């Protein structure tokens, strides 16, 4: 047994505690002094870190420094040495990247500094948060180029916090890997500098060497035009400048591969000429002057103007020209003729007039041999230092993830298989948390539910009831995860059935003892008790809003059963048929809301189908378009409801319009903390808001000398009642979650966040 295993067994016999970062650290962003004020920047002495510098991983210097005036003029703060910083935003892959400072510095507003207390080593947090890169990006609205993290996300992020002795042991192991990586990277940097030095010196030719223009020694040509609609999924590879640049950088082209048909290739290459082995392709647009030596005679074709072809010649070694095109001398020449080598075009005429040194061919071959060997050491991912660095990086990541993955209830480091299962489990548990817009959607939905019950306006009532309950079924379907039938039912009993009976019995007791004294009802106590067990709408007069929970339980359980029996396609078909039956066949009130299951299961299935097809981050990026569509749909939904077009098949149409409209709005405002919170406590609000709002209405009516009906007919007073009701429900939730979390479907050790959609 390793020392680490012994420590875990000794100090964490019941597993490792997980804490939110905000519980053990102070988190704060930086700021940027105005660049229009030279006195904030010139002759600065205070290191100032930009978000791009997080890619150093260990920050030992900053490109820019600010003055004391610049520091005093902003809200930026000094970050102590050995502090973890996370990029909240940034171009490309920067967002979610993690670094640790090795000097005292301040930062810009796109970086979050995390200063830990004595319970967490900053080095330990650094390694752990590096392992969370992809999760941090998912948390910040997807993996696109836009989106961002915020302080709330960082502060609420869960981190395993073993005793400091264990942290120290883990840090020691992982630092051994990172130190080796740093040494290898430094060696690679030195080799690249060495390659550049020898390349420039070997190509400067202290010996006499003639210079000739490229057009004097070979042919330079471009391809015939290929339109994008002529691209195919397979066939002859069609190269663009991005393909050559990607090959030069040793990465896959993010734009994907392109092809043209063989017939089109034959027709066009007959006009422009075929590209053969040892021809040189050079970028003529974008980042210009990047070379690529064609490795074989396999057919390829290129984009006109984007790539230009320098035909091979007996007068030069193509690899010699390749190295020359990378030389400092050639790059300076490009700048002189284009003024900007990243924007201007490198034309056929300019290439033809480009002078190149041409020593004797045997000298070219010797130079190529030397430089090719250097290039392989520096760039080849299969040999040399890049291969070693990649192998060591994978080794570090393997042991990092293994060391930082702790058993929930055990005392040893997880095996590989256990690690995978644990990751899957945690992903399932946090799935709804990552989809913050769903919490916002449920928050909006539960507000509308309360308004619909409090405000006694028929028009508003018809409008809200046209779509507000389908919202919850669609949101639930969005986070559906296939499980075995027994496991799913067991979980649903905990999260739905237990809260249903808990609050049902509690409110029934309150109704019997207190509320019956001022609210008339024909239902006896026994009828109400039987109604609670039957789950029938007509027998829940004491708290009619509870109808949703048994109906919801049957809906989600039935859908999962259908998936287990026949797959998702069968489940979709059966759900659609059930909804159709509801439209054409009048149904009586059935046990546990089974008749209403027919009504709503179609929306649950739709949520399952749409999940993964629509990205909230992409919707949020198009604020004006998405917002405009949302407003149009919500207004259209109101108009349809106003004219009573909410019956039969039209109900589904109207409901769908309302759900999509509100869903888009939720995606646009997905960071609203109040709505997120209301969404998380929506179960509690649903269960108790009925008796709560009736009490509030009664209390409000007394000093105003109004009847309760008049209070509910007044929009302003009704909204005040809604606000007070939600506040009381919130307080009740915070009490319940601490003393009896099982009432809202939670265990004591997992009573963190609430989601009706589970």
Strand content: 5-15%
What's the Cα radius of gyration?
33 Å
Number of strands: 19
What's the number of structural domains?
Answer: 4
Inertia-based shape: elongated
* Strand arrangement across the biggest beta sheet: 2-9-6-7-4
**Average pLDDT figure:** 82
Which structural class matches the secondary elements? alpha+beta
Helix content: 55-70%
The biggest beta sheet is recorded as: 5 strands, mixed
Head-to-tail CA distance between termini = 40 Å
Low-pLDDT windows of residues: 407-434, 749-758
Describe this structure in words.
With 758 residues, this protein is an alpha+beta fold. Helix content is 56%, strand content 9%. It is built from 31 helices and 19 strands. The strands form six sheets. Strands 2-9-6-7-4 form a five-stranded mixed sheet. Strands 12-18-15-16 form a four-stranded antiparallel sheet, with helices on both faces. Strand 15 (280-283) and strand 16 form a beta hairpin. Helix 19 (468-478) packs across helix 27. The protein is elongated, with a radius of gyration of 33 Å.
Task: Characterize this entry briefly.
This protein is α+β, with helices and mostly antiparallel strands.
Features:
Adenine-n6-DNA-methyltransferase TaqI, Chain A, domain 2; alpha+beta; 758 residues; four-stranded antiparallel sheet
Helix/strand layout:
Layout: H1 3-11, E1 18-20, H2 21-24, E2 25-29, E3 46-49, E4 58-59, E5 64-66, H3 68-72, E6 84-87, E7 98-101, E8 106-107, E9 111-116, H4 122-131, H5 133-139, H6 151-155, E10 158-160, H7 164-202, E11 210-213, H8 214-217, E12 220-221, E13 236-239, H9 241-249, E14 259-260, H10 262-272, E15 280-283, E16 291-293, E17 301-302, E18 307-310, H11 318-325, H12 328-338, H13 348-352, E19 355-358, H14 361-379, H15 384-403, H16 416-434, H17 436-454, H18 458-464, H19 468-478, H20 485-513, H21 525-534, H22 548-566, H23 568-584, H24 594-610, H25 616-621, H26 623-642, H27 649-668, H28 673-680, H29 682-704, H30 708-713, H31 715-739
Parallel strand pairs: 3-8, 4-7, 13-17
Antiparallel strand pairs: 1-10, 2-9, 3-5, 6-7, 6-9, 11-19, 12-18, 13-14, 15-16, 15-18
Helix pairs in contact: 1-7, 7-14, 7-15, 17-19, 17-27, 17-28, 17-29, 17-31, 18-26, 19-24, 19-27, 20-21, 20-22, 20-29, 22-23, 22-24, 23-24, 26-27, 29-31
């Amino acid at each position: 047994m390793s020392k680490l295993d012994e420590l875990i067994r000794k100090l964490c016999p019941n597993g490792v505690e997980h804490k939110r970062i905000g519980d053990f650290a102070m988190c704060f962003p930086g700021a940027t002094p105005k660049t229009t004020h030279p006195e904030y920047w010139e002759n600065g002495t205070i290191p100032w870190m930009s978000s791009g510098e997080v890619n150093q991983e260990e920050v030992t210097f900053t490109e820019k420094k600010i003055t004391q005036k610049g520091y005093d003029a902003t809200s930026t703060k000094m970050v102590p040495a050995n502090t973890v910083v996370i990029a909240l935003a940034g171009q490309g892959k920067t967002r979610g990247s993690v670094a640790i400072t090795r000097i005292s510095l301040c930062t810009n507003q796109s970086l979050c500094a995390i200063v830990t207390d004595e319970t967490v080593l900053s080095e330990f947090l650094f390694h752990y948060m590096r392992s969370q890169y992809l999760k941090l990006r998912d948390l910040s609205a997807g993996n696109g180029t836009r989106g961002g993290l915020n302080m709330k996300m960082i502060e609420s992020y869960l981190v395993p916090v073993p005793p400091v002795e264990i942290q120290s042991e883990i840090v020691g192991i992982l630092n051994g890997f990172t130190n080796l990586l740093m040494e290898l990277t430094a060696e690679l940097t030195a080799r690249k500098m060495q390659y550049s030095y020898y390349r420039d010196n070997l190509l400067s030719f202290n010996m006499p060497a003639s210079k000739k223009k490229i057009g004097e020694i070979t042919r330079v040509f471009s391809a015939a035009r290929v339109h994008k609609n002529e691209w195919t999924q397979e066939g002859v590879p069609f190269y663009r400048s991005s393909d050559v640049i990607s090959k030069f950088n040793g990465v896959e082209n993010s734009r994907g591969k392109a092809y043209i048909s063989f017939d089109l290739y034959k027709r066009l290459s007959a006009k422009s000429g075929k590209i053969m082995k040892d021809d040189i392709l050079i970028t003529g647009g974008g980042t210009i002057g990047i070379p690529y030596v064609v490795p074989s005679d396999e057919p390829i074709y290129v984009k006109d103007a984007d790539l230009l072809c320098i035909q091979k010649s007996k007068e030069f070694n193509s690899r010699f020209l390749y190295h020359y095109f990378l030389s400092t001398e050639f790059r300076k020449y490009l700048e002189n003729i284009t003024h900007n080598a990243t924007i201007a075009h490198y034309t056929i005429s300019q290439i033809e007039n480009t002078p190149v040194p041409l020593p004797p061919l045997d000298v070219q071959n010797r130079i190529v041999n030397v430089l090719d060997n250097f290039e392989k050491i520096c760039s080849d991912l299969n040999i040399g230092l890049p291969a070693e660095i990649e192998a060591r990086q994978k080794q570090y990541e393997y042991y990092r993830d293994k060391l930082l993955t702790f058993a929930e209830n055990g005392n040893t480091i997880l095996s590989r298989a256990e690690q995978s299962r644990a990751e899957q489990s945690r992903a399932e548990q946090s799935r709804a948390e990552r989809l913050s817009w769903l919490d916002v959607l449920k928050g909006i939905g539960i507000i509308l539910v309360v308004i619909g019950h409090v405000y006694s306006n028929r028009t508003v009532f018809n409008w809200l009831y046209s779509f507000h309950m389908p919202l919850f079924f669609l949101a639930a379907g969005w986070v559906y995860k296939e499980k075995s039938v027994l496991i799913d039912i067991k979980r649903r009993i905990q999260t739905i059935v237990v809260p249903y009976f808990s609050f049902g019995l509690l409110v029934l007791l309150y109704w019997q003892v207190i509320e019956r004294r001022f609210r008339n009802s024909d239902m006896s106590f026994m009828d109400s008790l039987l109604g609670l067990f039957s789950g029938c709408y007509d027998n829940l007069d004491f708290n009619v809003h509870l109808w949703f929970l048994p109906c919801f339980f049957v809906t989600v359980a039935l859908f999962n059963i259908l998936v287990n029996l026949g797959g998702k396609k069968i489940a979709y078909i059966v759900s659609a048929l059930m909804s159709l039956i509801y439209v054409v066949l009048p149904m009586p009130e059935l046990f546990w809301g089974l008749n209403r299951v027919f009504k709503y299961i179609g929306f649950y299935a739709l949520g399952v189908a749409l999940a993964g097809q629509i990205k909230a981050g992409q919707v949020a990026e198009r604020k004006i378009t998405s917002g405009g569509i949302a407003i149009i749909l919500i207004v259209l939904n109101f108009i349809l409801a106003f004219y009573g077009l909410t019956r039969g098949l039209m109900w589904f149409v109207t409901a769908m319009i309302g759900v999509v409209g509100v869903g888009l709005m939720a995606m646009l405002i997905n960071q609203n903390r109040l709505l997120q919170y209301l969404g998380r406590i929506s179960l509690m609000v649903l269960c108790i808001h009925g008796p709560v709002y009736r009490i509030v209405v009664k209390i409000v009516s007394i000093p105003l000398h109004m009847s309760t009906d008049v209070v509910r007919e007044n929009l302003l007073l009704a909204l005040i009642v809604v606000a007070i009701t939600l506040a009381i429900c919130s307080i009740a939730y915070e009490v319940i979650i601490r003393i009896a979390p099982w009432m809202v479907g939670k265990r004591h050790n997992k009573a963190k966040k609430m989601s009706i959609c589970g």
